[in-house]
Amino acid sequence: MTNPEPSPPTLGLFRLFLKFLRFGCLAFGGPVAQIAMVRQSLVEEERWISPQRFNRLLAVMQILPGPEAHELCVHLGMVARGRIGGLLAGLGFMLPGFALMLLAGWLYDGWIVGRPGAASIFFGIQVVVLAIILRAVQRIGAHILEDALLWIVAGASFAATLAGVPFWIPLLAGGLVYAFSARKALAALILVAAAALAWVIPASNGFHPAVAAAAGPATTLALFVAGLKGGLLTFGGAYTAIPYVRTDTVGRGWLSDGSFLDGVALAGILPAPLVIFATFAGYVAGGWSGAVAITAGMFLPAFAFSMIFFERLEAVVENPALHHLLAGVAGAVVGVIAATLVQLGWSTAERASGLVVPIAIFAAALVLAWKLKGKLVIPALIVAGGIAGWLLGL
Predict the structure, then answer these.
(1) What is the pLDDT of residues 215-241, one digit of tens each?
(2) Most confidently predicted of 27-41, 80-94, 320-334
(3) What SS3 string covers the chain?
(4) Which residues contact 373 (CB under 8 A, 6 or more apart)?
(5) Which of 265, 360, 383, 387 lies deepest, with the highest CB count within 10 Å?
């Protein structure tokens, strides 16, 4: 006789919100540490669901777009108190990081930028963030690029992005080619169609989109759409949202690459999903309303997938056709984010007074990011980068 599936204790909505607010206040160290914290508390100690069901849910969240730790919180909130519980759990988990990032954006924009010595400190941080992103690309690629075809998809997406091809073409082509890889004639036809689209649609300055002319003011709607695009295309980890948010903010002249990297750095030391860097970009580009709009767009898919498709999510694990499509999209995303790293690195090098010291800092940060483990590694590296930039006068 099998053991019955465990269930959450009876909780009032306010207590449920406070429980996940506590998780949000302690959400340091990125998604792995955040998921481990939720699992320890709700699965192993309080037994809301069985470990087996938790593992199935985690598998679903990892193949869907959005920050998986946040999506797990929404889903577990729904297990406890239905859709209103999912909404409160998700809000509780994200609010501490959102509030702290709003404060950080306000301090940065109004009190830090332009101060003597601030440029050197933040330049050192930006160099370290590039190393952290490179390490993240390697980790994401090791998880996603499981065969030769996915490597080819990633390489083609990398080249297309640097050539200025609109992001959705390599993503769509990569997903379809991998899904229909067994039907070689159809896969070849998809590639021809993608190449034709890339030829017809005007290319952006893909290698260095930061030099693009400003495309009008940073409206609330435009920032919401920028966040929504990032939220819908975040496959394989929060770092994959970087290219899309950057294209829609830096690429439109609303903020600089340096400020964008500063936001990514701040997100790495706050208790929040890393995609909270979008809040910073929205604040610098469009003030308080811009920060709220881009954050709402970024987190909307994470709420929607669980709250709308709650009853069907676990069935996704059993659908191999969808797996292949999403795997191809994820492979293309690896190429996009690798190309974005090259673009960010080029922009950073252009702002450097010399390259020897920044390269040395980058190399040291990369080695440490590669060798060290623990939820405090990234915050420590970011702080160290700032100190190095200040001491060395970058």
Answers:
(1) 678 899 999 999 998 888 876 567 778
(2) 80-94
(3) CCCCCCCCCCCCHHHHHHHHHHHHHCCCCHHHHHHHHHHHHHHHHCCCCCHHHHHHHHHHHHHCCCCHHHHHHHHHHHHHHHHHHHHHHHHHHHHHHHHHHHHHHHHHHHHHCCCCCHHHHHHHHHHHHHHHHHHHHHHHHHHHCCCHHHHHHHHHHHHHHHCCCCCHHHHHHHHHHHHCCCCHHHHHHHHHHHHHHHHHCCCCCCCCHHHCCCCCCCCHHHHHHHHHHHHHCCCCCHHHHHHHHHHHHHHHCCCCHHHHHHHHHHHCCCCCCHHHHHHHHHHHHHHHHHHHHHHHHHHHHHHHHHHHCHHHHHHHHHCHHHHHHHHHHHHHHHHHHHHHHHHHHHHHHHHCCCCHHHHHHHHHHHHHHHHCCCCCHHHHHHHHHHHHHHHHCC
(4) none
(5) 265
pLDDT digits (tens, 9 = 90+) for 333-352: 889 889 989 989 998 998 88
Quick one: how far is CA 331 from the chain centroid?
15
The pTM assigned to this predicted structure is: 0.82
pLDDT at 268: 85
Beta-carbon contacts of residue 332 (< 8 Å; ≥ 6 apart): 153, 154, 156, 157, 170, 171, 173, 174, 175
Residue-wise pLDDT tens digits, 168-188: 888 889 989 998 888 888 888
Sequence ranges of the domains in the chain: 13-91, 96-392
